[in-house]
Write a structure and sequence with these properties.
Number of domains of chain A: 1
Order of helices and strands of chain A: HHHEEHHHHHHHHHHH
Number of strands of chain A: 2
Strand order of the largest sheet of chain A: 1-2
Strand content of chain A: under 5%
Structural class of chain A: mainly alpha
CATH architecture of chain A: Orthogonal Bundle
CATH superfamily of chain A: Farnesyl Diphosphate Synthase
Number of helices of chain A: 14
Largest interface: A-B, 43 and 43 residues
Distance between the termini of chain A: 23 Å
Radius of gyration of chain A: 17 Å
Shape of chain A: globular
CATH topology of chain A: Farnesyl Diphosphate Synthase
Oligomer: homodimer
């Protein structure tokens, strides 16, 4: 659990939780527990996705993947235990009972079906099929977008967001998630394993459905930019300090890692 | 998810949730959602435990196991999705926000570390080592006892149990869980695959730490009886109709399935 959860990473999702909390005018440290819960859900999904039966990746965040280091059995169980711990942390954080139950509901909804796990299933089923824009968008919306969108909403829950603010956070996160995934696909084509800390070119080898495979590299980059614009439009409707949240959204496509 | 969760099974854990709710004088149907959540956590754990990397079992509840039917990748993800759904259902059930957050906390605590997943890890690490009573009890307490004990507590949460009642439910469940696991070990030695719907003799083949391996069959059966007595002592302190809960506890050792 520690090997994977504490590996060097961008921590984009927990940063989004805290920046979203701040964008509503609330002290971002109040959202630290649920930010950790989101990162644990993310790490659980990385551990399981890297398993030999799924993506069979050996390298993650510059380290051997969990199953390479500890064996498949312990990797499956480490993922399961991180997933359980995420919900325990969210259910016990310092917040009203209403906020805690709400946070668990949002987190579980984003992680399951429809959501992260459902997206992984679609991704597996789509391998080797003809690239198709609608299919790619659905895969990304579930596999990446749902947890990124949930991250923004969870920061809002801690800050006591009303329904309209929550909707803006959800939409901002949804567009940021799409931008992030496009950048991820682009980096998988253009970067090096040494720089990324994970295998590159692996998507193409497996004929995965990606934006570059579908529309070419340059058009994919432009689509990423457009997603960032839309996300920022929603952020601008929020009442608190928005700099951190806007920078994170920009970073989701500008990053080289 | 449906293949595994809706397979014919005893549904002991959800029945314990509902009987515990009733034993506090509350309508047991009020606990139906959280009872389903417990069964989903149980099924998630069966799917993952049966995987080739862990117990490598082909038969469960009289059917091919999830990975035999759908492949390893989908089995891992079906387990993950059932786990997520369990928390979503518990967080959204008809109950106060306090009860919903509390239920998620109890369920996540019982499922993770320490709890069900931690017990599975200990079980794996203990394979092939010398049988040892303390180790066996710790494995059982986590792997089986924690979710069975949580089932009783969760029924109590729905019924608004006070701290003392909750403690009796927790203890009753803990002893019932130990009785249940002893009976499971005994049946693995004495029954047939055709009758149980899963492989038999598999524990001994893998040199798993079991009560019969440790103390012999007859002494193991007597130990199971003693656990039932202790569980029933705690149940007798509860204020509502106790017949269903007592029968279920008795059944945990008298069962032939």
């Amino acid at each position: 659990m520690r090997w994977s959860a504490l590996a060097p990473g961008k921590r984009l999702r927990p940063a989004l939780v805290m920046a979203s909390c701040e964008a509503l005018g609330c002290d971002p440290t109040h959202s630290l527990d649920v930010a950790c819960a989101v990162e644990m859900v993310h790490c659980f999904s990385l551990i399981h996705d890297d398993l030999p039966a799924i993506d069979d990746d050996d390298l993650r965040r510059g380290r051997p993947t969990c199953h390479v280091k500890f064996g498949e059995a312990l990797a499956i169980l480490a993922g399961d235990a991180l997933f359980a711990l995420a919900f325990r942390v969210a259910a016990n954080m310092k917040a009203s009972a209403e906020a805690r139950a709400d946070a668990v509901s949002v987190l579980a909804g984003a992680a399951g079906t429809p959501g992260l796990v459902a997206g992984e299933v679609l991704d597996i089923l789509a391998e080797g099929t003809e690239p198709n824009l609608e299919a790619v968008q659905q895969i990304h919306a579930w596999k990446t977008g749902s947890l990124i969108s949930a991250s923004c909403v969870l920061g809002g829950i801690i800050a006591g967001a009303d329904a309209e603010q929550r909707q803006h956070l959800s939409e901002a996160g949804r567009w940021a998630g799409q931008a992030f995934q496009i950048a991820d696909d682009v980096l998988n084509e253009t970067s090096t394993a040494d720089h990324l800390g994970k295998a590159v070119g692996s998507d193409r080898e497996k004929s995965k459905q990606t934006y570059p495979a579908l529309m070419g590299l340059e058009a994919a980059k432009a689509a990423g930019e457009e997603c960032v614009e839309r996300a920022v439009e929603h952020v601008q409707r929020l009442p608190g300090p928005k700099e951190a949240l806007q920078s994170l959204i920009r970073y989701s496509v500008d990053r080289t890692l």
